[in-house]
């Protein structure tokens, strides 16, 4: 065998090895058997804000010991949201809605790893039902709605009581002076 054939054979061998092993390096980890410890916050006071805020903080543990600090995305009510990391396996996602667009109820927030989010985007582009794409895990947010406060503000009640007290004192003073 000539050295030229030997060199091309070794180049082909190297390329074959690279092609066979590249999926291992390109594909992100998949979280199997995800469990979370989470805290949920939603706005309850509508009088002091114009939008309802939804906030989820969670710690993620995968049964298959997938690498820590996965890249995650979330989907809720047709919105795709980035998920932020703020520590080892600690994540946070938040979004806002106008009060009228955030009625009381349960909101299922579906979380996807890189592979799942890619499948979700592909299904949405193709016009397929995105509910068929299985999320890595789901967190339910129970939103109780927002309160716009009492019909009469406390400052009006306090002012009325102050006027009533002043009037009573004025009447008492007028009876004493007569």
UniProtKB/TrEMBL annotation:
GO terms for cellular component: endoplasmic reticulum membrane. Residues 1-28 form the signal peptide. It comes from the Eukaryota. InterPro entries: TRAP-delta. It is a single-pass type I membrane protein. Keywords: Disulfide bond, Endoplasmic reticulum, Isopeptide bond, Membrane, Signal, Transmembrane, Transmembrane helix, Ubl conjugation. It holds the Pfam family TRAP-delta. It is found in: Endoplasmic reticulum membrane. The keyword Transport does not apply. Belongs to the TRAP-delta family. TRAP proteins are part of a complex whose function is to bind calcium to the ER membrane and thereby regulate the retention of ER resident proteins. Heterotetramer of TRAP-alpha, TRAP-beta, TRAP-delta and TRAP-gamma. This is Translocon-associated protein subunit delta. It comes from Acanthaster planci (Crown-of-thorns starfish).
């Amino acid at each position: 065998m000539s050295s030229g054939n030997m060199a091309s054979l070794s180049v082909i061998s190297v390329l074959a090895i690279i092609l066979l092993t590249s999926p291992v390096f390109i594909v992100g980890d998949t979280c199997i058997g995800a469990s979370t410890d989470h805290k949920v916050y939603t706005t309850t006071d509508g009088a002091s804000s114009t939008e309802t805020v939804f906030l989820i903080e969670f710690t993620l543990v995968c049964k298959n010991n997938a690498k820590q600090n996965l890249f995650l995305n979330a989907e809720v009510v047709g919105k795709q949201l980035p998920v932020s990391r703020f520590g080892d396996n600690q994540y946070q996602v938040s979004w806002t809605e106008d009060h009228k667009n955030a009625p009381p109820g349960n909101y299922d927030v579906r979380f996807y790893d890189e592979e799942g989010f890619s499948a979700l985007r592909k299904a949405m582009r193709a016009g397929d039902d995105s509910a068929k794409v299985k999320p890595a895990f789901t967190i339910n947010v129970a939103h109780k709605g927002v309160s716009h406060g009492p019909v009469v503000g406390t400052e009006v009640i306090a002012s009325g009581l102050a006027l009533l007290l002043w009037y009573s004192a004025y009447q008492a003073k007028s009876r004493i002076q007569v």
